[in-house]
Amino acid sequence: MNELVETIGRCVERGKINKASPFPGDMKGLDGADELTHQALEAGTDAEAILQACIAAMVRIGEKFGRNEVFVPEMLMAAKAMKAVTEHLKPFFQSGSVQAKGTFIIGTVAGDLHDIGKNLVSMFVEGNGWNVVDLGVDVKPEKFIDAIRKQPKCVVGLSALLTTTIVSMSKTVQEIRALFPSINIVVGGAPLTMEIAKEMGANGYARDPQGAVRWLAAIREAS
Amino acid sequence: MERLLPQSEREEGVFEVTIDAADVTISKEVLYRALGYSDNRIDPHFKDIVDHVLAGIHDLCAVRAGYRVLDAHVKADRGEGLVVGRTFITTGCTIAGQLKNAEKAALFLCTIGPGMEAWSRRLFREGDPVRGHFVDTAASLAAEKAAAVLHDHIGLVMAGGGLKVTNRFSPGYCGWPVADQRRLFSFFPENFCGISLTESALMVPVKSVSGMIGIGAHAMRENYSCERCSRKECTASRAYKNSAPT
Ligand code: B12
Fold this sequence. Notes:
The complex is a heterodimer of chains A (223) and B (246).
Chain A: H1 3-14, H2 33-42, H3 47-66, H4 72-95, E1 103-108, H5 116-127, E2 131-134, H6 141-150, E3 155-159, H7 163-179, E4 184-188, H8 194-199, E5 204-205, H9 209-222
Parallel strand pairs in A: 1-2, 1-3, 3-4, 4-5
Chain B: E1 7-11, E2 14-17, H1 28-35, H2 44-60, E3 64-74, E4 82-84, E5 87-89, H3 93-98, E6 104-111, H4 115-125, H5 129-160, E7 164-169, H6 181-185, E8 196-197, E9 203-204, E10 208-216, H7 235-243
Antiparallel strand pairs in B: 1-2, 2-3, 3-4, 3-6, 4-5, 6-10, 7-10, 8-9
Helix pairs in contact in B: 2-5, 4-5
The structure holds cobalamin (B12).
């Protein structure tokens, strides 16, 4: 692999966004994902190669998270560095020479106002190469349905924090299912378990952003 | 640092307690740990963010807290809850067991207000999710601290009358359904302490805590009985079991 591409991957894994960013401490003052991607594209490097290196970097940081070697803040920095790269790749996405993995529509269900967990999942899924549509909090089933109509091949993610809002989550799953029987739905949030997810008719459950990315990769492979 | 705080009676038997933002500030070390960095090995950039966030707590936390004390007893034939005032509250056997010596119960509510939540949301929107995450975590810790300060205060008030208090318990924990929030709120005037309940029993502002504390001559604050509970989904119990000495 091109050395520059490898360095971009390392910047993403370490969360080094750009030269001005003081994070991580040991890379202070060095060029980051932003400058290096610009340089690589100027030098004619293949955009797809850059994207693949960065996706691999996100997988590595996710694995470190799974081993408790890094925590949510490092994952968020990596996702931000990834965003800096994809900003440069935008023209290639638009021309079709580079493609997103798919569209992920996420929201916190009606009656629930918690957004932090949903925001973290949304950031990390986007960092892993998905196009993310974040519908916000207190999202009524109709709003999910409208968004799905615009992106019928999407995957849907629902978030809830309390057992009382799981009722609203089940209702949302049912209403979506009634119109889009084959759509993939993943649910998450502190009070959920795989059992509850299955009971309400969701296809999957993930307990953290890393789990969500793994689940998305698995269904993509299966389809 | 337990101390008696100023309180005023809002309506008969319902007290609002004055808790200063300074009383709910948390140490850097506690925030590091909550973010995952238990050994203090944290990047200098994150340390700077922690300092910034903790400096903001003072201005953005508008703590409000209050309680109401009522007669209470566990009914021998209905072990799954207790009668508070004239209402039967289905706390489940775990909490009822812990409150079996209680003669009274203090129902309480507290919040740090909407300021920290709004700050976190703004940071996410402006593309600074790390800071947003730190603010959210600090806000959750501050809300829990507000409940702890209120608990200590109620303990001191009761000690003045020769009574002791138990641990505090909240709907949503130890088998007490979250849906019971509605019953708990019915003991307070509307919008007490600026907290309201949505249709799905969610408190607004989000960074709020509600619950109950047992009171009696023989009441005791003891270890939570997580080791006797089999509820696998309870994250509090998971954390308790992981940290319990073996
Ligand atoms: C901190 C905390 C609080 C804070 C505020 C929480 C907040 N989110 O703002 C305070 C102290 C205020 C609080 C209050 C209460 N809490 Co609380 N709280 C917690 C605690 C310890 C952590 C929650 C948190 O912020 N985590 C960090 C965020 C980032 O995580 P998250 O939102 O869960 O999201 C992650 C995952 O769930 C997942 N995820 C989230 N959404 C999605 C979506 C998809 C598609 C996927 C794949 C994944 C995914 O990924 C995210 C990132 O890792 C949890 C226990 C726990 N360890 O989870 C209890 C917990 C959520 N609380 C609980 C309860 C009951 C309450 C109260 C009702 C108690 C009370 N009576 O006062 C109140 C309710 C407050 C209200 N507004 O109504 C229960 C809820 C379960 C239930 N029985 O309904 C929990 C699970 C504890 C328990 N009993 O096990 N709480």
